[in-house]
Amino acid sequence: MGRDESVSGVPSTSGSTRPKAEAHHTRRHTVKRTFVRGGKLGILGTNCLSVSCDRRPSSESMEVRSLSSAQTFIAKWVFPTVWISGFGLGTIAMWLHPTKGPAEDPRIEFLVAWIIGAAFLLLGPARLKRVRADATNIYVSNYIRDVTIPLANICNVTENRLLNWHPVRVHFGEPTRFGTSIVFMPKIRWFGLWSSHPVVAELKALSHPSAGG
Predict the structure, then answer these.
(1) What are the pLDDT digits (tens) for 113-160?
(2) Where are the domains of the chain?
(3) Nearest-angstrom CA–CA distance, 68 and 132
(4) Which of 114-136 are b and which e, b meaning 16 or more Cβ less than 10 Å from the residue's Cβ?
(5) Does domain 67-212 have CATH number 3.30.930?
């Protein structure tokens, strides 16, 4: 009977421990499910946070950065001044002291070349502007006067792919202190000279975000 009691006692002992084991297993399962749900919730919260951050302009996009080339000052002021004055002084000297001899007088050719070259420089590189931009405005300068223009005032952006310095023209819907348009020289690219410069698409996207998105 002692053996029977001990044997019969085993089920009673196992029966008493089974609810504890089941309860422990249930608690582990509940904790695991809670942990998994918490992990999913944490991941979902992280995703929501990243999406909300993406919708806001980053600090980098808010910084003012240059869109025009660093050589704008040289192309606008230095080169035209040196060429027009140097070539002009040489042409004037030829007229004041003409050469004598059987050769043809080159004064007319030099004068015409000086006039055409000066007109090209004054209507081209001399009109270049320094251009910077942030998320709301573009900042235009001729190195004497600075003008702030809202991006919303830009109605079109065009470019000339035939010239090697690739001038970009920005057209405004409302007149500014620099007129209804400005021209700037974008940063130099060593490849893709006859393809559209990336700054054109960038300015269009900044001025018309709904169309760009």
Answers:
(1) 999 999 999 999 999 999 999 999 999 999 999 999 999 999 999 999
(2) 1-56, 67-212
(3) 7
(4) beeebeebeebbbbbbbbbbeee
(5) no
